UniProtKB/TrEMBL annotation:
Domain Peptidase S8/S53: 144-560
Designated name of the protein: Peptidase S8/S53 domain-containing protein
SUPFAM superfamilies with a match to the protein in the record: PA domain, Subtilisin-like
Gene3D superfamilies: 3.50.30.30, Peptidase S8/S53 domain
Annotated signal sequence range: 1-18
Organism: Drechslerella stenobrocha 248
InterPro entries: C5a/SBT2-like_Fn3, PA_dom_sf, PA_domain, Peptidase_S8/S53_dom, Peptidase_S8/S53_dom_sf, Peptidase_S8_Asp-AS, Peptidase_S8_His-AS, Peptidase_S8_Ser-AS
GO cellular component assignments: membrane
Domain PA: 371-428
Superkingdom in the source lineage: Eukaryota
Length: 871
C-alpha cells in the first residue's frame, strides 16, 4: 500500500460553543449508593427514565447516577430535585479530546513499526526530553517502575509493539476498560466493553508520550504501567465527544483501580469549579490521587477562557510549548545517478496521487543556476516528460501553478523541492498528476549531479517504510504554543500551572493508521507532565516518601522556566504573561531534585476589589546544609483582556504591555537551617497607568536563589488590575440580548403576536463569564398576576430551565438561545405552570463576576419589548 501523509488544521478557527449540553440527559448526585432505589422511585412516580450510568465506586468520592429523561419537562426535573436523596441535578455536558491543532499523520498499513529492547533507558536524546530535562532523570535511574498512570482518552492501541503488544496484567497497558464502545458519539448510549483498544488515535499518541519503547524514541517514563480508560468512540474514524457522566465514571474507576495518577487530555470552555466533572476531580485530588489535565487549545479566544476540568480545584493544568525540532514522518525512496551515486535513500512527503513502484529519470529544469520554480513555465528543453520525475523548487507562486506548468509539458510526476528545511504536504488540486515534496538538500544533490552531467533516477516502492527525521524549528521552536488556552478563571484563579513540549510531537499512533504521528496540542503536553510525575513518584517511593497532589502541583509550578512571548512568528524581548504560561517550561530534573521547597503553587492577588494585600508562603530548606536565600522578583508582560473601547474579549494576541508590578518581599534575604522553614510575605502594587476598562491582567515570578546566585525556585504571581464587578458580562455591544420570533427575526417593537405554534425565542451572549443567568417573565397586561418577586421586579415566574449556572463567556460570534412555550416556574426547581393569554415581557439578568447571587445590584438587567402571547 502506498503511504500517504496528510496534514489538516483543525481547532484554531472552529468556534467553540459556549455550552454543549446533551438534551434530556442528567446527572443526579444522590445520598447513599443505591441507584436502583432511585430508579424504582422514578418508576413509581410515573417518570420514565433510562439508566445511563451508575456513578459510584466503593471509594465514596461521588455517588450518583446519570439517566435520560424520556419526557424532559421542567415538572419532571423539579419532582426529581425535590426528592430528599437527590443532592444535585445537573445536565450532562459534552467535552472533546483537546483537539490536536495541527496534525501530520502518516497513514500506511505497511509501515514498519519496531520496538526496541527494554534497556538503555538511562539515556534519551529525544528532543522534547532534552527540552524538559527528562534525560537527567533517566540518568538518575528513574524510569517510572512501579507507578500506575490512568489515561482517560480514546483508549490505547496496545497492539502497537512499542506499547507492549497486549492488554492486561503483566503488560505495559495493564489495566483500564472501555466505557463507551466504538460507535459512541457523545450523544448516543455508551456500550461498554472490557477492551479499551483505540480506534481514533488520540489516546495512543498520549500513551506513547508517557511510556513508549520504540526504536526511534521512548516515552518520558518507559516503565510505568498504563491504564486505558476509553471515553470516546470513533464514529467516523475520529474521536467524537465524551459526556461528563462518562468522564466522571472513568475518573472514579481509575481511582478505584489504584492509579497513582490520572491524566486527561480533554476539555472544553468553562472557567468555573462547579461542573460535576470538576467537582469529582477536586474530590479525587483531595482524597490523594493527583490529576493532570490539558489546559485547552482555545488560545485564539484570548484571556479568561480557562477550560474544564483543568480549572478544577487541585488539578494540574498543562500548557503547551513547541518542540525545538519539527519531527517528520517521511516515506523512503532511493535515487541513483549514472556514475557516482548508487541507491541513496531519501525521504519525501506525498501530496497527491502515488508514485507506485516505479523508476523515473529525474528532469531538473535549471534557470540561473538554480532549480526552476516553474512560475513562468518550464525551460525549452522540458520535453518528453511523461515518464520522468519533474523537480521544481518551492516558492514565488502556488503549488498548483508549478504543477500546472509541468503538466502543460506532459508531466505525470512532480517532486517539489522545499526551499526551507523539512517538507510539508503541498496542497495541490491539479488532477491526473502525482506530487510529492523532498527536503532542500535532496534537490541540491540532484542539481549537483545534473551539473556534473550525470543522469539521476528515482526508484519508489509502494511498500517502502516510513522513517522519522527532524528539522530544526527556528521560528517557533522552544517557545510557548499560541493555542494554549489562557487564564485566569472566572474566579481569578491562574490556569495553566506549567508548560511542557506539546507542539509538533512525534509519538505512537494506531498500527492501522501507520503507527506514528506528529501532533500538536495541550493534549500532547499533558502526558509529558504525567510521565514526569511518574518519575517523581518512583523517586519518592524509592525514598519511602508519601507524596500529596499539592506537593506535585507546587513543585511543577515553581520549578519551571518562564519563556518569552511569541506571537506565532517571532519571540518578543519580554516574558509572556503568567496568564498564558504559569510557571513556564517544565524542568523535570529540578522538580524531582530541588532541595528548596515552598508550599504554594501560585500567588493569586485577585481583582482590585478583593485585592489580597499580602500573600505568604513557607520556604523550606530540604538540604543538609544551612542555606542563605535571596528573594527577588521579575515580571511577565501585562495583558489587556478586552479590546480597546470595547467590552468584548480581544482575540489572540492580546495587547501586551511591558508594565510591571512593584513587589515587596519580606524578608528578602534569610538563612534557613537544614529541615527548617520560614514564612515569607509578598505584597504587590499593580503596574501604574493601565486602562482599567480593558481588564489588565498582570503577573510575574518571585525568584528564590541561593545567596551565591544559584537559582532555586520561581513562584508565579498574578492579579487583575480591575474591579471585576464593574466589567460588563453581557454582550450588549453586539445587540444582545435579543427577543426573536420563530423565524429568528429580531422583535424590537412592543406588541408582536406570538403563540404556542410560533413561540418567541430569546438569545443571549456573554462577553465575560457569568455564574448565573436568569430570564423572568413579567405580565404587562395583568400586573396583579405578577406574584413572584425577583429583586426589583414583580414577575409571573421564571423561564423554565433557568437560572443557568456557571456560564463561560461566549467565544466570538456565538450565542445561546431558548424558546418560550408559555410556561413559567414559580420557584427554582418548581413545576412549570401555564400563563394565560396577555401581554408579557422578559427580564434578563446576568450575575457579574465576583457578584453575589442574592444581591440585585450585582446583576446586569435588560428587559425585552413586550409581546402578546396566545396559548
Ligand atoms: C458499530 O456500528 C457498526 C455499523 O453499524 C457495526 O457494524 C458494529 O458492530 C458496531 N460496533 C459495536 C461494537 O457495536
Ligand atoms: C458520520 O459522517 C456522516 C457523513 O458526514 C454523517 O452523516 C454522520 O452523522 C456521521 N456519524 C456520526 C456518528 O457522527
Ligand atoms: C524563542 O524563545 C524560546 C524560549 O523563550 C527559545 O527556546 C527560542 O530559541 C527562541 N527563538 C528564537 C528564534 O530566538
Ligand atoms: C477572588 O475573590 C472572589 C470574591 O471574593 C472569590 O470568590 C475568589 O475565590 C477569589 N479568587 C482568588 C483566586 O482568590
Ligand atoms: C433559529 O436559530 C436557531 C439557533 O440559533 C436554529 O436552530 C434555528 O434553526 C433557527 N431557525 C430558523 C427558522 O432559522
Ligand atoms: C415598550 O413599552 C414600554 C412601556 O410602555 C416603553 O417604555 C418602551 O419604550 C416600549 N418599547 C418600544 C421598543 O417601543
Amino acid at each position: 500500500m502506498h503511504l500517504q501523509t496528510f496534514i489538516t488544521f483543525v481547532g484554531l478557527l472552529s468556534p467553540a460553543l459556549a455550552q454543549r449540553i446533551l438534551p434530556g440527559a442528567y446527572i443526579a448526585e444522590i445520598k447513599g449508593t443505591n441507584s436502583n432505589a432511585f430508579l424504582d422511585k422514578a418508576r413509581s412516580s410515573g417518570i420514565r427514565v433510562r439508566h445511563r450510568m451508575a456513578l459510584n465506586q466503593e471509594t465514596s468520592i461521588f455517588n450518583g447516577i446519570s439517566f435520560d429523561l424520556e419526557d424532559d419537562t421542567a415538572e419532571n426535573r423539579a419532582k426529581i430535585e425535590s426528592w430528599g436523596e437527590v443532592v444535585q441535578l445537573s445536565p450532562v455536558r459534552l467535552y472533546d479530546a483537546a483537539a490536536p491543532v495541527a496534525r501530520r499523520i502518516s497513514r500506511d498499513t505497511a509501515a514498519v513499526i519496531s520496538k526496541r529492547a527494554a534497556e538503555g533507558f538511562e539515556t534519551t536524546t529525544f528532543p522534547p526530553h532534552l527540552q524538559g530535562g527528562v534525560h537527567k532523570l533517566r540518568s538518575q535511574g528513574l524510569t517510572g517502575t512501579g507507578i500506575k498512570i490512568a489515561v482517560i482518552d480514546t483508549g490505547i492501541d496496545y497492539t502497537h509493539p512499542s506499547l507492549g503488544g497486549k492488554f492486561g496484567p503483566g503488560n505495559k497497558v495493564s489495566f483500564g476498560t472501555d466505557l463507551v464502545g466504538e460507535n459512541y458519539t457523545g450523544s448516543n448510549t455508551p456500550v461498554p466493553s472490557d477492551d479499551p483498544i483505540d480506534c481514533a488515535g488520540h489516546g495512543t499518541h498520549v500513551a506513547g508520550t508517557i511510556a513508549a519503547v520504540d526504536k526511534d524514541f521512548t516515552g518520558v517514563a518507559p516503565n510505568v504501567e498504563l491504564g486505558a480508560y476509553r471515553v470516546f468512540g470513533c464514529p467516523n474514524g475520529s474521536a467524537g465527544s465524551a459526556s461528563n457522566d462518562v468522564l466522571i465514571s472513568a475518573f472514579l474507576q481509575a481511582q478505584a483501580d489504584g492509579a497513582d495518577l490520572i491524566t486527561a487530555s480533554i476539555g472544553g470552555p468553562s472557567g468555573w469549579t462547579a461542573d460535576p466533572w470538576a467537582q469529582v476531580v477536586q474530590r479525587i485530588v483531595e482524597a490523594g490521587t493527583p490529576c493532570s489535565i490539558a489546559a485547552g487549545n482555545e488560545g485564539s479566544e484570548g484571556l479568561f477562557y480557562a477550560s474544564g476540568a483543568a480549572d478544577a480545584v487541585g488539578a494540574i493544568a498543562v500548557a503547551s510549548i513547541n518542540n525545538i525540532n519539527s519531527p517528520e514522518v517521511l516515506t523512503s525512496a532511493k535515487y541513483s545517478s549514472s556514475k557516482s551515486v548508487k541507491e541513496k535513500t531519501f525521504g519525501y512527503t506525498a501530496a497527491t496521487g502515488t508514485f507506485g513502484s516505479e523508476t523515473y529519470e529525474v528532469y531538473v529544469p535549471i534557470v540561473d543556476g538554480q532549480i526552476s520554480d516553474g512560475c513562468s513555465g518550464l525551460p525549452e528543453d522540458a520535453t518528453a516528460l511523461g515518464n520522468k520525475m519533474v523537480a521544481i523548487r518551492r516558492g514565488t507562486c502556488t503549488f498548483d501553478a508549478k504543477v500546472q506548468a509541468a503538466v502543460a509539458r506532459g508531466a505525470k510526476n512532480v517532486i517539489i523541492v522545499n526551499n526551507v528545511p523539512g517538507t510539508i504536504q503541498a496542497s495541490v488540486t491539479v488532477g491526473n498528476v502525482n506530487v510529492g515534496m523532498v527536503e532542500p538538500q535532496t534537490g541540491a544533490a540532484w542539481l549537483d549531479l545534473v551539473n556534473a552531467k550525470e543522469t539521476v533516477s528515482t526508484t519508489f516502492d509502494k511498500t517502502s517504510p516510513v522513517f522519522i527525521t527532524a528539522v530544526e524549528n527556528p521560528i517557533t521552536g522552544g517557545s510557548l504554543s499560541i493555542f494554549t488556552s489562557w487564564g485566569p478563571t472566572n474566579e481569578m484563579y491562574q490556569r495553566p500551572h506549567i508548560g511542557a513540549p506539546g507542539g509538533n510531537i512525534l509519538s505512537t499512533y494506531p498500527v492501522k493508521f501507520g503507527g506514528y504521528a506528529v501532533l500538536s496540542g495541550t493534549s500532547m503536553a499533558t502526558p509529558f507532565v504525567a510521565g514526569v510525575i511518574g518519575l517523581y513518584l518512583e523517586n519518592a517511593k524509592k525514598l519511602g516518601r508519601k507524596v500529596t497532589p499539592a506537593e506535585l502541583r507546587v513543585g511543577l509550578a515553581t520549578t519551571g522556566k518562564p519563556l518569552l512571548f511569541n506571537d506565532g512568528a517571532k519571540n518578543s524581548t519580554f516574558l509572556a504573561p503568567v496568564a498564558q504560561q504559569g510557571g513556564g517550561l517544565i524542568d523535570a530534573f529540578k522538580f524531582v531534585n530541588s532541595k528548596t521547597i515552598v508550599d504554594r503553587d501560585l500567588l493569586e492577588f485577585n481583582d482590585t476589589q478583593h485585592f489580597r494585600k499580602s500573600l505568604d508562603f513557607k520556604l523550606t530548606n530540604a538540604g543538609s546544609e544551612t542555606v542563605s536565600y535571596k528573594l527577588t522578583s521579575f515580571g511577565g508582560a501585562t495583558a489587556y483582556a478586552l479590546k480597546e473601547g470595547s467590552t468584548l474579549a480581544q482575540q489572540f494576541p492580546p495587547t501586551l504591555l511591558e508594565s510591571y508590578s512593584t513587589v515587596t518581599i519580606e524578608p528578602s534575604t534569610l538563612e534557613i537551617k537544614p529541615g527548617q522553614s520560614k514564612r515569607v510575605v509578598v505584597r504587590v502594587t499593580p503596574p501604574a497607568g493601565l486602562d482599567e476598562a480593558r481588564v489588565p491582567v498582570y503577573g510575574g515570578w518571585i525568584n528564590i536563589a541561593y545567596a551565591n546566585g544559584e537559582d532555586q525556585l520561581r513562584i508565579p504571581y498574578m492579579g487583575v488590575a480591575a474591579h471585576m464587578k464593574k466589567a460588563t458580562v453581557t454582550n450588549f455591544e453586539e445587540g444582545y440580548p435579543i427577543l426573536m420570533n420563530v423565524r429568528n427575526q429580531t422583535l424590537s417593537v412592543n406588541g408582536t403576536e406570538v403563540s404556542r405554534s410560533a413561540p418567541p425565542r430569546f438569545a443571549w451572549s456573554l462577553a465575560l463569564g457569568s455564574g448565573l443567568v436568569r430570564i423572568d417573565v413579567v405580565s404587562v397586561s395583568a400586573p396583579e398576576s405578577n406574584d413572584v418577586t425577583v429583586f426589583d421586579d414583580k414577575t409571573v415566574g421564571s423561564f423554565p430551565g433557568y437560572p443557568n449556572y456557571w456560564n463561560p463567556r461566549n467565544s466570538a460570534n456565538t450565542r445561546n438561545t431558548a424558546v418560550w412555550n408559555g410556561r413559567v416556574v414559580k420557584k427554582e426547581g418548581g413545576a412549570p405552570v401555564r400563563v394565560p393569554a396577555g401581554n408579557y415581557k422578559f427580564v434578563y439578568r446576568a450575575l457579574k463576576l465576583t457578584g453575589r447571587k442574592h444581591t440585585g445590584r450585582d446583576y446586569e438587567r435588560w428587559e425585552s419589548p413586550s409581546f402578546h402571547w396566545s396559548p
